[in-house]
Design goal:
Layout: H1 2-30, H2 35-38, H3 46-53, H4 64-78, H5 90-125, H6 130-143, H7 147-165, H8 183-220, H9 224-231, H10 236-266, H11 268-274, H12 279-288, H13 292-320, H14 322-326
Helix pairs in contact: 1-4, 1-13, 5-6, 5-8, 5-10, 5-13, 6-8, 7-8, 7-11, 8-10, 9-10, 10-12, 10-13, 11-12, 12-13
Length: 327
């Protein structure tokens, strides 16, 4: 298993290197960092703008190959991903914003998987019962609600609850409150700000796992190996939990592993509505501000998470399916 993981990791590192460098050339060709200075007052000449970009290795007068080599050397030797056209460190932005997104992604993904898989198992084992029909109807309705509408609905409900309770216990904007000091008060304040965006991501994420897990389990619940397990004396519930569910979880495990990178950089609407400065908003900002280095670093971050997700999916599949471990 270790040799297999190392071999896969090496292959992914090579693909990340190629994809990241290709992204650098594409970003350098199609993004114009000078646009950040053209609307400043007093108006600057093109020569002064190019001179201002030179310290950040963004001077368009320098051939792109030379800029790429300086950037690559800095990344490999110092792990310095450069600076934005305004001089902000990309390393600092990625480090801070990835931690912000991690708070949302880890908790929301965990809750989505637990709720979705649990509902899938419950409804599949009670197919066409009232619980199955009600939960399916709710999930289908939620599935068809746009994320922006769901997030705004959560905000309005939170404001209504705050007003009727006479307390501000649900925060609808920001990652934390100003002037909060001390470890425990800071943790408590952060948790209160985390409730609504986590609830939104969980609400929009559990549906896919519920409907997918229900369908997968229904495909295996009447399989020969499940009937054989029941013939040995296992109850229907135990046969489903020990045998059918184990097989049905394999595609779900792979889906979870590959969904994390997309959530990290794709929670743009949720982060925007709730005012969280995460990777999703940063990705949009780098494009809108023609931040070449920020765009490339975001692409590399997403590629690295995809590689981690692929390896975790392989490990999960091997743990769940003995045939893969043998092969």
């Amino acid at each position: 298993m270790v040799r297999y993981v190392m071999r896969r990791a090496t292959g992914w590192l090579l693909m990340i290197f190629v994809a990241t460098n290709a992204t650098y050339f594409l970003a350098s060709w199609f993004l114009d960092p000078r646009s950040n200075f053209r609307e400043l007052r007093p108006v600057r000449s093109e020569a002064r703008i190019d001179q201002a970009l030179a310290p950040y290795n963004l001077d368009p007068r320098v051939p792109v190959v030379h800029r790429w080599w300086d950037w690559l050397t800095s990344v490999v030797v110092h792990f310095d991903w450069g600076r934005s056209p305004t001089g902000v460190s990309v390393n600092g932005e990625i480090g801070y914003r990835s931690l912000v997104s991690a708070e949302l992604v880890v908790i929301a993904t965990f809750l989505s998987v637990v709720i979705g898989v649990s509902l899938g198992v419950y409804t599949a084992s009670r197919q066409y019962g009232w619980g199955d029909r009600v939960s399916q109807a709710v999930s289908i309705v939620v599935f068809n609600i746009p994320t922006s509408v769901a997030a705004l609905a959560v905000v309005f409900v939170a404001i209504w609850l705050n007003q009727h309770a006479g307390l501000r216990f649900l925060y609808v904007a920001g990652e934390n409150s100003p002037n909060v000091e001390g470890l425990l008060p800071t943790i408590g304040d952060r948790f209160l700000h985390l409730i609504l965006p986590t609830l939104t991501l969980t609400l929009m994420g559990y549906v896919g796992y519920h409907l997918t897990q229900r369908s997968l389990l229904l495909d295996t619940i009447n399989a020969d190996f499940v009937r054989t397990a029941r013939a040995t004396g296992l109850t229907r519930t135990k046969a489903i939990r020990r045998h059918a569910l184990r097989t049905a979880l394999i595609p779900t495990a792979a889906s979870v592993a590959f969904s994390v990178p997309a959530i990290f950089t794709g929670a743009i609407i949720t982060e925007t509505i709730f005012g969280w400065s995460g990777m999703g908003r940063y990705f949009i900002q780098t494009i809108s501000k023609s931040d070449v280095h920020g765009t490339v670093a975001t692409a590399a971050f997403a590629a690295a998470l995809t590689a981690v997700g692929a390896i975790l999916a392989d490990i999960a599949t091997a743990l769940l399916d003995p045939r893969v471990r043998v092969s």
